[in-house]
Amino acid sequence: MSDERHADLPGRTARGAATMLLARGLGTGIAILATAVIARYVTPGEYGLVGMVIAVLGVARVLEELGLGDAAIQRDRIDDSEVTTLAIINILCGVVLGLGFVASAPLIAWFYGRDELVPLCVALSPLFVFAGIGAQPRAMMRRRFRFRALAVAQTGSLVAGAIAGTAGAVGGLGPWAIVLQHLVGGGVLAVGCLIGSGWRPVRPASLRRIRPMLGYGLNLGASQFLNAITRNLDDILIGRFVGPIAVGAYGRAFQLMSLPATQLNQPLTSAVVPALSRLQDQPDRFRSLYRSSIEVIASLAFPLAVFTGVAAPAMVGTILGPDWSEATPLLRALAPAGLMVSLNVATGWVYLSLGRTDRQLRWRLLGSTAAVVGMVAGLPWGALGVALGLSSARVLMRLPAVLYCFHGTPLVLLDLGSVVWRTAIASAVAGVLAWLFDPQMLQPVGRLLVQSLVFIGIWLGTMAVLPGGTGRLRAGVRLVRGLRSGEVMDAS
């Protein structure tokens, strides 16, 4: 890459981040609307049946990509023949895993003690193939900063899936409406990425040429596999030992909790990691871009996570409806885990951009073990105990995770702390006051609106009185303008 293109990396990153955030904002609205409608027609028990299958599928699906998409992005130079070889591997893995999932359907049904899961497993198996087809095209869009095309593909898949799922729910398909939503969304995303990437397969390169990327990808894939086990073990444990109704309530609570992380982390990661990868040999510019990007995440993740916990009753009542009241305490218990998930990018960006997936794998072994211990320890108290155990483990392991990640890199703990402490304090103050001024006599929609206004007002006021807070608010305005114009400011 030329020096001129390197010089424009912050601008291209900002434009990419702005495009992806805008698309994710639209996607969030679509996802919430679809969830609200479907929840009125599909019962918690029906959600839970599909959730049992999705939990197992979510673990297996990590193996279909083997980290090869990120390996292609992190590589300084790569040609179409090497990408073609990686794509062939991804597709073959998808086909093998899909067939294996079909063959495993009776075993999954036996594990849960529910024969009705067999056809659900068979119906969801094409998701492996869809993901394998779209893996390398999606990676090429990220590598080449084609974020507008990626945003169109991702938003299109959300819209298509939401329409299909909503139509199926209204039509009385029950759990099959959720299956339809996943299949349509996955298929549209694969096709959209294949068309929008501009990449087309050529004669594949030899395995010898991609061996370094295989090593990177296998380390990352193993780390992602451990993370997937941790992420889905809660649903598996609850489904096996509590029941489908609890899985349904827990799954919807987890979805609401994870929306901030999903909608913020993925689009910014798509834009930031390719840019940081190009700045590996420029420590000062690496730190500057990292700090600015983390400030965006922190300024949104902290208030969103705290508000989710505070306003859980109003959110559940507004989005899911009165039949889902069991999700309220679960959402509150999961809120700390949601904040920690949002901050995962603080370490993930470093590992991926510097090519240190070996260290990421070693830490994941420890972090995943802690999370599993927390969930298993909480299982005697049902779904709520699992939620509390997961949140406790995530919070306790966050600081050690950052210290381990930063060791031997251009970054120090102050790089993270200096851009998050103000929003952390402001979010805590706003959360306490929004909790105290909870208008419980109002209907859920009005209650949510009032709490939102109180929280935002207190958050802004607290930021203004904190040392340097006014400057950070002004910097936030400049940052938004910079995203629109393609400039990135230093967060120092």
Sum up the structure in keywords.
22 helices, single chain, 492 residues, 0% strand, disordered N terminus, 2 domains
Secondary-structure map:
Blueprint lengths: L2 H5 L1 H31 L4 H17 L1 H4 L2 H7 L5 H24 L1 H8 L4 H8 L1 H18 L3 H24 L4 H22 L14 H31 L2 H35 L4 H28 L1 H9 L6 H16 L2 H9 L3 H22 L3 H25 L6 H24 L7 H22 L3 H17 L7
Descriptive account of the structure:
There is one protein chain. The two termini are 28 Å apart. It is globular and about 65 Å long. Helix 14 (283-310) runs parallel beside helix 20. The chain folds into two domains: 41-232, no CATH class; 242-492, no CATH class. It has 492 residues and is mostly helical. Mean pLDDT is 82; it is low at 1-7 and 483-492. It has helices at residues 3-7, 9-39, 44-60, 62-65, 68-74, 80-103, 105-112, 117-124, 126-143, 147-170, 175-196, 211-241, 244-278, 283-310, 312-320, 327-342, 345-353, 357-378, 382-406, 413-436, 444-465, 469-485.
> Globular, elongated, flat, extended or rod-shaped: what is the shape?
globular
Main sheet overview? none
Strand content: under 5%
Percent helix among the residues? Answer: over 70%
Please provide a brief summary of the model.
The chain has 492 residues and is mainly α.
